[in-house]
Amino acid sequence: MLPVQLNRKSAVNFINKLSAAWLANDSLLCVGLDPDLSKLPPHLRGEPDGIFTFCAEIIDATADLACCFKPQIAYFAALGAERQLEDICRYLRAHYPHLPIILDAKRGDIGATARQYACEAFDRYGADAVTVNPYMGADSVAPYMDWPERGVIVLCRTSNPGGSDLQLLNVDGTPLYQYVARLVAEKWNDNGQCALVVGATFPEELAQVRAIVGDMPLLVPGIGAQGGDIVATVRAGRTVNGAGMMINSSRAILYATPAAGENFAAAARRVALETRDTINLNRA
Prior knowledge:
Blueprint: H1 14-24, E1 29-33, H2 42-45, H3 50-62, E2 68-71, H4 73-77, H5 82-95, E3 102-107, H6 111-124, E4 129-132, H7 138-141, E5 151-157, H8 164-167, E6 170-171, E7 174-175, H9 176-188, E8 194-198, H10 203-213, E9 218-220, H11 230-237, E10 245-249, H12 251-254, H13 264-281
Parallel strand pairs: 1-2, 1-10, 3-4, 4-5, 5-8, 8-9, 9-10
Antiparallel strand pairs: 6-7
Helix pairs in contact: 3-5, 3-13, 9-10, 10-11
């Protein structure tokens, strides 16, 4: 692979950290942390810190294969497990400080409320980046920019079928998702730390977003359990140097072998390795 060009604005900003992880681990794989209590190994379901233990073992098994980790806050909050999420983020910072933490929250609110969500992501959890919803406009995203070294990953073309209800609406001859991509790239990215969420289930539209935003990183959900094609995804979304993406897989890795029991981490590593290698075969 060609070397990744680092953003020199700050030595520790999100884009630099992500770019270094792409290079160090030779990986575009993002491992999603979506702990579903009903799918955890039986020996962990009744443990007070079972969620933390499960995620920590997944992290240890896959950290050398990933470019980042993405905990989904809803899976923790629904179980009252925010403290365990704090512990997981702390664990990542302590043991794998070179790998970005993306808090998948998809927050979308204005003014003082948005600032509280930003504090939650960046101060409470120490995330390197957070996903946000742009559909309340610039003032709903602006508070996150007050942390100039942190990433703001804006929903653009999501992987779910219902995303087309709004994202394909015509805005002056342009689909709304393309309007959002251009808006983020040209007007909102003052800190140089923005990225976009674009689903693997729409590779042609992924390619169109790449053409609009240049080298801006793309968080790409939708492979694995959602059925997105890895080869088509990589070919549509890679940058000229074979990077530019965080291709997320959650359930396919976390629950690689439903009956794995105490061997769940080894099963997760096997799937993560296969996924990383398949991605890399198509980066050139």
